[in-house]
Amino acid sequence: SQTIHQWPATLVQPVGSPLSLECTVEGTSNPNLYWYRQAAGRGLQLLFYSVGIGQISSEVPQNLSASRPQDRQFILSSKKLLLSDSGFYLCAGGGGLDYGYTFGSGTRLTVV
Amino acid sequence: AQKITQTQPGMFVQEKEAVTLDCTYDTSDPSYGLFWYKQPSSGEMIFLIYQGSYDQQNATEGRYSLNFQKARKSANLVISASQLGDSAMYFCAMRNNTGGFKTIFGAGTRLFVKA
């Protein structure tokens, strides 16, 4: 079965600082991978998805970028964080045609 | 455009009773999947149940069942015999079956189970 590893669990960063969140996958090869952001008390917003190494699709124009340097590694980055980048970031792996995603445990980012 | 609507921000249910969480969706794609996820206060997202757009029968997984009414574009989650541990946020979601299998989520319903 698929396991998504995500770290750190919490992060407090000053405005204007860089960001790098890493997500790694265990138990499957060539998964579809997704980055979501969840504002407090809200639903999940899809930020990026990747169907393979080096293949990134952006869903929402913003201050963030994503990369997939290896099959089981998906990275979310920013060169300069904004206050509006605060939120709960979740990495997910595709679960197949008749199964849901597997999610990582999430990173709670607070930009101060 | 695809859309998921959950109109119940919060719901209360007595322990051991059944509860229905509402979800409607909109899509022009003939092939899609519908999902329910549970998010406890810890923040993790847990997949509960799946219904395919071509499935004739409603999906069931233990105490969870999905009441799929395709013509009405609704996919309500029914939780039978509620337990205190069912208290959480519940999200309805829809995935298109092309172009990356992206999933969109509704705003969620917070369920409170009373002892």
What would a concise description of this structure say?
The complex is a heterodimer of chains A (112) and B (115). Chain A has 112 residues and is mostly beta strands.
Q: Into which percent range does the helicity of residues of chain A fall?
A: under 10%
Proportion of residues in helical segments of chain B = under 10%
Major sheet details of chain A: 7 strands, mixed
Count of helix runs of chain B = 0
> What distance separates the N and C termini of chain A?
38 Å
Mean pLDDT of chain B: 94
The total strand number of chain A stands at: 11
Entry keywords:
heterodimer; A: 112 residues; mainly beta; four-stranded antiparallel β-sheet; 11 strands; globular; B: 115 residues
Protein model, in words:
In chain A, a hairpin with a 2-residue loop joins strand 5 and strand 6. Chain A is built from no helices and 11 strands. Helix content of chain A is 0%, strand content 55%. Chain B has 115 residues and is mostly beta strands. Helix content of chain B is 0%, strand content 53%. In chain B, the strands form 3 sheets. In chain B, strands 2, 5, 6, 10, 11 and 12 form a 6-stranded mixed sheet that branches. Chain B has a 4-stranded antiparallel sheet with strand order 3-9-8-7, with no helix packed on it. Chain B is globular, with a radius of gyration of 14 Å. Chain B starts with a strand and ends with a strand. Chains A and B meet through strand 5, strand 9 and strand 10 of A and strand 5, strand 6 and strand 11 of B.
